[in-house]
Design goal:
The chain has about 400 residues and is of the alpha/beta class. The protein has twelve helices and 14 strands. Strand 2, helix 1 and strand 3 form a beta-alpha-beta unit.
Length: about 400
């Protein structure tokens, strides 16, 4: 495998970067860590790429930065599956898709050293004035008062703080949930209840193609841009309320991996794409609501420098799943697995947090809801069954990794 010379077992933070061409962004994140005296020996980078990309140059960059990490193109991913005895599950991670971030979750799961994961998209940069990794870890350990948001549509627009001025809704926000009435109050969180930290984004907002077109942009970006002033306060969504979860700038605890599979997009017969992180966020939020934990949103911000591309290409990739996106959350909103320890839902102390088995139990119930359901009334409804089947297989794959020692190298 293509590795950097740093010891791969030193770090407790697995930093997962899906990349094809803009891998040099890693330099900015490492420089940010060092500038803020964050211990870079805690970081282990996993670059998920393709055979046609500059894998050797990526490994050279990690070595030049003197950080631990590995680079996995398609061939090396297949070798990793063989090494860990899960080659039969290789199709869980689609090639040349943003959903290949799921490989990073498998990699992280196979090494119990990793307590935290971080997703970073290669078209982002950290804000220089913020300790990027330090802030994410602070969020994951947060204890205290934070703004809590709810609406009359059960959806929270992560751009709600200036929505009256810019009118933006993020990619994946259901159209039927727009024009909501927003209410806020204060939640008091116990340390350890936050399991995911979603950093938001300045410059190019994360919009879907329809909304980009409505904003008058044909190059896949947006005419309306966001600034730090659009994100004055951190917040959580109230229980029973959903929010879009974008994986371009996201940290999470190890225990949520069973409920955080990045769904199989792009390489499917229905041509559904672009909802991998959005739907994974819906499932994670439902699991959090069942287990009494939180997704924390706000800082650290990143600068999103999305490259110009055809808005209509994005529209083509999204349109097959737009109707499904309107209803997916409703299908899992009442899932209540019977084998989760109810005593854990208070999460009074960090040591009482639900563990990976609890997240797996909730996820299995959601998988069953989709895999065993009939969705003929929706266009491409059979894709939901396909997703449910892959969710079940995700849990099987994680279990196989846990139970089967890695095959020794020749």
């Amino acid at each position: 495998m293509v590795t950097s010379p740093a010891n791969p077992t030193d770090g407790d933070i697995c930093v997962i970067v899906p990349t094809i061409r803009e891998y040099d962004c890693v330099r900015a994140y490492v420089e940010n860590a060092r500038a803020h005296d964050f211990d870079v020996s805690r970081l282990h980078f996993v670059l998920v790429t393709e055979d046609f990309c500059e894998t050797e140059a990526m490994a050279d960059m990690l070595a030049d930065l003197n950080v631990a990490g590995e680079v996995f193109d398609g061939t090396r991913r297949e070798a990793w599956y063989d090494h860990h005895g899960v080659a039969a599950h290789g199709e869980l991670v689609p090639a040349a898709s943003h959903a290949e971030t799921s490989f990073g979750l498998l990699y992280m799961w196979a090494d119990p050293t990793f307590e935290y994961g971080v997703f970073i998209d290669d078209d982002t940069l950290p804000h220089e004035d913020a300790d990027y990794f330090g802030r994410h870890l602070e969020n994951l350990a947060f204890a205290g008062d934070v703004e809590r948001v709810r609406s009359d549509t059960q959806w929270v627009n992560v751009l709600y703080q200036r929505a009256d001025e810019h009118g933006l809704y993020p990619r994946g926000y259901p159209y039927a949930a727009m024009d909501e009435t927003v209410e806020t109050d204060t939640a008091t969180l116990d340390g350890g209840s936050v399991v995911a930290s979603q950093g938001l984004w300045t410059n190019v907002p994360d919009l879907d193609a329809v909304r980009i077109l409505m904003d008058g942009d044909l190059e896949g970006q947006a005419q309306t841009r966001t600034t730090a002033a659009d994100f004055e306060r951190d917040f959580v969504a109230a229980p029973g309320h959903y929010l879009t979860v974008c994986s371009m700038n996201l940290a999470f605890r190890r225990e949520v991996v069973p409920a955080f599979y990045q769904l199989p997009m792009d390489d499917n017969e229905w041509e559904v794409g672009r909802f991998d992180d959005i739907w994974s966020g819906v499932f994670l939020k439902r699991a959090c609501d069942v287990l009494g934990t939180q997704i924390y949103s706000g800082g650290p911000l990143c600068e999103h420098n999305k490259a110009p591309r055809s808005t209509f290409d994005d529209l083509h990739n999204e349109v097959a799943g737009l109707e499904l996106n309107e209803h997916l959350w409703e299908l899992v909103d009442d899932v209540e697995p019977t084998d989760v320890d109810a005593d854990l839902t208070d999460c009074a102390e960090p040591g009482d947090r639900p563990d990976a088995a609890d997240y797996a139990a909730v996820y299995a119930a959601m998988a069953d809801r989709l895999a065993d359901g009939t969705f003929e009334s929706y266009r491409n409804g059979a894709f939901l069954t396909y997703v449910g089947e892959h969710m079940r297989e995700w849990l099987d794959c994680l279990d196989a990794i846990r139970r089967t020692p890695a095959v020794a190298d020749d």
